[in-house]
Amino acid sequence: MDTNLSTLLDSLPSNTLYVLVRWPFFEALKKYSWFEYECVYYGTWDTESIIKAYFVPLGRVQELHDQGDPEMFLFTLNRA
Q1: Which of 15, 49, 56, 79 is deepest in the core (most CB within 10 A)?
Q2: Could you give the C-alpha distances from 57 to 6, 70, 76, in angstroms and in order?
Q3: What pTM was computed for the model?
């Protein structure tokens, strides 16, 4: 399914910041009970490649990072 990115972004709750997590990295997040309800799938393709990704709430990524979950070695959050 080809989804217009701006249309998808408009459909996300405005009070939540999201991080776009591409395949295969989102696979590690699917084990969490909140994944299905809080993450939004984004898939598209062009002549070069197929893009599969999910918009994941930044708060969830931060939560997992703070817990030291091994999947989160991919994410680095810098605090100013």
Answers
A1: 56
A2: 17, 18, 15
A3: 0.66
CB distance 53 to 20 below 8 Å: yes
Residue for token pair 């994944």:
35
Instruction: Extract the tokens encoding 69.
Output: 């979950």
Contact 40, 46 (CB under 8 A): no
From CA 56, how far away is CA 27, in angstroms rounded? 12
Q: Are 19 and 56 in contact (CB under 8 A)?
A: yes
Q: Give the residue carrying structure tokens 């809080």.
A: 38
pLDDT tens, N- to C-terminus, the chain (80 residues): 445 656 666 666 666 788 888 888 889 899 999 999 999 998 777 667 677 889 998 888 888 877 877 665 555 444 44
